[in-house]
Amino acid sequence: MSFSPSIAGLSEALTDFSNALVAAPASAFVRLGSTFLTRLPAAPLSAPYLVGFSTDTAALLGLQPEVQNDPGFAELFSGNVTREWPADLLPYASVYSGHQFGVWAGQLGDGRALGLGEIDHDGQRFELQLKGSGRTPYSRMGDGRAVLRSSIREFLCSEAMHHLGIPTTRALCVIGSDQPVRRETIETAAVVTRVAPSFVRFGHFEHFYSNDRIDALRALADHVIERFYPHCREADDPYLALLNEAVISTADLLVDWQAVGFCHGVMNTDNMSILGLTIDYGPFGFMDGFDAGYICNHSDSQGRYAYRMQPQIAYWNLFCLAQGLLPLFGAQHDDSVRSDRVIEDAQRVLAGFKDRFSPALERRMCAKLGFESTREGDDALVNRLFEVMHANRADFTLTFRNLARVSKHDASGDAPVRDLFLDRAAFDAWANDYRVRLSEEARDDAARAIAMNRVNPKFVLRNHLAETAIRRAKEKDFSEVERLAAVLRHPFDEQPEHAAYAGLPPDWASSLEVSCSS
Ligand code: AMP
Ligand code: MG
User: Fold this and answer.
1) What's an example of a GO molecular-function annotation for this chain (predicted)?
2) Residues at CB less than 6 angstroms from ligand 1
């Protein structure tokens, strides 16, 4: 095995890191070989500079914060150094397919992402991927690039989601450049380094199924089972057990999204992680004023991926995954009954989505309202709250956060939440019923408030906060990216000094259109 050569200007720490990265341990994704990926260097990015750095993600990888000051850091994480790597150690783009907006789209793949390799640290292993590092064989009409705007959004949101306790790909850094990139206007290029245990998507399975490459399909499923779900091997049908893992982790993820008012925006099957991670941050959005039909992606004219649709779409996507895995199911059945049995088995496993999702969401909503357990009638109370919030476009995050101040004894603490509703009478009617329910709780107000503040974040990545950080970054002031990331590291803490980051969006935010181009 030859290793990545040390690069002039790269510190010893980063040279060691890149050597470890390309070493490709057993069961690394790259070991699946050329049926699954193409190796190529990143395209050159001129005069790269650091825009954002996550100390937390660095720590996961065993990197000290000081590495960000290494003159070679931006060269490594722009991909520039990969041009010096030997052919057999080059980064890799993987091939996948998928359903986009409900329609089979055929072959897609990493059109602007390149895997660098995998890092073992502290008993965990992470794959690193550059996003925006140039064209690949799967770029189709795209330029292989990502712009600064969308890269900062992905960087901030993936770290913010993690600190909200929501499974997600992570981000180590954003590297910028003055190199122009053409979108609706001319913007500049950036590269995000994403970090995750695996970047395998539902679409990877769909790809090999649709091409009738059953051996490759099995190799991919075996890779995921071996790395992440070794207990599936003990099941009667390991591949059905794998589907079940995807069903469970996806249901749990959707509970997390719905509970914080997060909209993904592009829930195509190629943007669904086999591990149930939030992946591919594009035109996502956290809701300000609650609208059950909120659509954050302006090209989603039908509202397929609207907030209220997300759980159903996840379920639909799991059917696509099940179809992709179908040829692997049922080896334990006799040939004469096999085809009937595998369909029944797959349907049973898929039905588990609803069994998992609905009670879990109900429990989560009860926790958000401060109830220690779920009681008869709670779901109706929750639904009525959402109706009143929807009718008033009450701020999602502030409504739940301020509910902690409502007292079970009287209306003395109602004002902060009540003021978010234009129709005060409608809120009061609901609040009276809420108080009756609270009076059944054993906990006192103070203890309940502490518990509620652990599940109702004060700080989320509102669009206008990201926009402010982006506008400054376009002027080469990256301090707001850092400040905002620091606030979002502690979303459940009061942080009174950062109250402005928790406030209602300013008037100009309502005219913000998050472009789906990235
Ligand atoms: P998305 O739905 O945004 O995740 O992207 C769908 C497909 O388009 C994926 O295969 C991406 O890799 C690819 N893609 C998106 N933008 C670009 C780009 N600028 N250049 C090349 N490929 C891209
Ligand atoms: Mg994608």
Assistant:
1) manganese ion binding
2) 108-112, 138-139, 142-145, 266, 268, 271, 280, 282
